[in-house]
């Protein structure tokens, strides 16, 4: 897709809008909360990253926001080298962190707790609710280091002015003191507790959206459950830097049951069967890439679900999982970016969705 505009949101974040040709409008239609996978060859290496859509479904273009990650290959490229008129490979929208479909008659109360770049998918949701549900209210609690690091600050201020009675925005800053102590520090369990009881009202929340680092999500999820919000109405997406090191090290199993020798893996992709040999410790997706097979993947961190496949035969060891539902695991689905063979022969099917 061709880049239509690039906007510097903060010193460390940009938003990039892509032109959508008329014949691809349907392919790139999306549900608020979904993401795009961008692909670029950087220094000769095939690099893919997932970035949440921050625009409204009613906009003519489709926009994502990218925040700088220390040592991040794609984020550095985006902040320093992209320009209007450039073209980037963009996969169609994906993702399960979605805004439940509403109607003009609905009078729902939504609450969102976001930190840093976790605002990106929430931004799309906020706009959709304000545009499509005239009787609904959205409460946003947004954590950052300081006011200069608030992504979409001007846009949020504009929306707040236009929808005074339907949008409430509260900024929580960890390195900039504000008048009320409640708005200083991080989004901890205690703060979230106060926000729910004193600001929103614990009995009125219909859906909660959580997006940011794992500790914030877990704190918010537990607090919301303690206040009787059903788990199926608590929607979350983990935001950690996919290309800034290994954010999952603490979550990996201490002992892997994967085989310590070469294993045969057969994979079905777009109707074609490919047979490869995996080296010890190699994931299925890494083996596919080494063999030149165009298997789907994006984050390689167990979060985005792009590399989901079904194990047809054999067994695999999946190191981490932040995106598959329990029923999917029971049905045999795995994230191939995290999966290594436990048996000498494994067959996975990417087409069985």
From TrEMBL:
Query: Entry's SUPFAM superfamilies?
Result: 2Fe-2S ferredoxin-like, Ferredoxin reductase-like, C-terminal NADP-linked domain, Riboflavin synthase domain-like
What name has this protein been given in UniProt? Phenylacetic acid degradation oxidoreductase
Domain FAD-binding FR-type span(s) in chain numbering: 1-100
Which CDD domains does the annotation name?
fer2, PA_degradation_oxidoreductase_like
Q: Does the entry feature the keyword Iron-sulfur, yes or no?
A: yes
Q: What is its cofactor?
A: [2Fe-2S] cluster; FAD
List the gene name.
paaK
Organism of origin is Pseudovibrio sp. P12
GO MF terms held by the record = 2 iron, 2 sulfur cluster binding; flavin adenine dinucleotide binding; metal ion binding; oxidoreductase activity
Q: Does the keyword Nucleus apply?
A: no
Coiled-coil spans are none
PROSITE patterns, per the entry: 2FE2S_FER_2, FAD_FR
Q: Which UniProt keywords apply?
A: 2Fe-2S, FAD, Flavoprotein, Iron, Iron-sulfur, Metal-binding, Oxidoreductase
Tell me the InterPro entries matching this sequence: 2Fe-2S_ferredoxin-like_sf (IPR036010), 2Fe-2S_ferredoxin-type (IPR001041), Beta-grasp_dom_sf (IPR012675), Cbr1-like_FAD-bd_dom (IPR008333), FAD-bd_FR_type (IPR017927), Flavoprot_Pyr_Nucl_cyt_Rdtase (IPR001709), FNR_nucleotide-bd (IPR039261), MRET (IPR050415)
- What domain of life? Bacteria
Q: Which residues form the 2Fe-2S ferredoxin-type domain?
A: 263-353
Q: Might you name a Gene Ontology BP term for this protein?
A: phenylacetate catabolic process
């Amino acid at each position: 897709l061709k880049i239509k505009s690039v906007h510097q949101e903060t010193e460390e974040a940009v938003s990039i809008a892509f032109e959508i040709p008329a014949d691809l409008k349907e392919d790139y239609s999306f549900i608020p909360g979904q993401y795009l996978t961008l692909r670029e060859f950087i220094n000769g290496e095939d690099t893919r990253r997932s970035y949440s859509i921050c625009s409204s479904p009613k906009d003519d273009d489709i926009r994502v926001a990218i925040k700088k990650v220390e040592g991040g290959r794609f984020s550095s490229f985006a902040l320093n080298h992209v320009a209007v008129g450039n073209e980037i490979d963009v996969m169609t929208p994906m993702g399960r962190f979605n805004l439940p479909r509403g109607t003009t008659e609905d009078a729902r109360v939504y609450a969102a707790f976001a930190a840093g770049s976790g605002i990106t998918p929430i931004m799309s949701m906020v706009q959709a609710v304000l545009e499509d549900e005239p009787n609904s209210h959205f409460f946003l609690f947004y954590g950052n280091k300081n006011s200069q690091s608030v992504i979409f600050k001007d846009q949020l201020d504009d929306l707040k002015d236009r929808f005074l009675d339907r949008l409430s925005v509260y900024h929580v800053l960890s390195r900039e003191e504000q008048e009320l102590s409640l708005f200083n520090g991080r989004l901890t369990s205690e703060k979230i507790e106060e926000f729910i009881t004193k600001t929103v009202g614990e009995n009125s929340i219909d859906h909660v959206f959580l997006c940011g680092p794992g500790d914030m999500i877990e704190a918010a999820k537990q607090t919301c459950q303690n206040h009787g919000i059903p788990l199926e109405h608590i929607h979350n997406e983990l935001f950690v830097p996919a290309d800034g090191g290994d954010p999952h090290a603490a979550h990996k199993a201490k002992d892997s049951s994967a085989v310590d020798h070469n294993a045969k893996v057969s994979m079905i992709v777009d109707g074609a069967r490919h047979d490869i040999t995996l080296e010890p410790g190699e994931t299925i997706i890494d083996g596919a890439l080494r063999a030149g097979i165009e298997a789907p993947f994006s984050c390689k961190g167990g979060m985005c679900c792009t590399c989901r496949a079904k194990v047809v035969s054999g067994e695999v060891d999946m190191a981490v999982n932040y995106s598959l539902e329990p029923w999917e695991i029971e049905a045999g689905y795995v994230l191939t970016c995290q999966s290594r063979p436990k048996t000498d022969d494994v067959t996975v099917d990417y087409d069985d969705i």
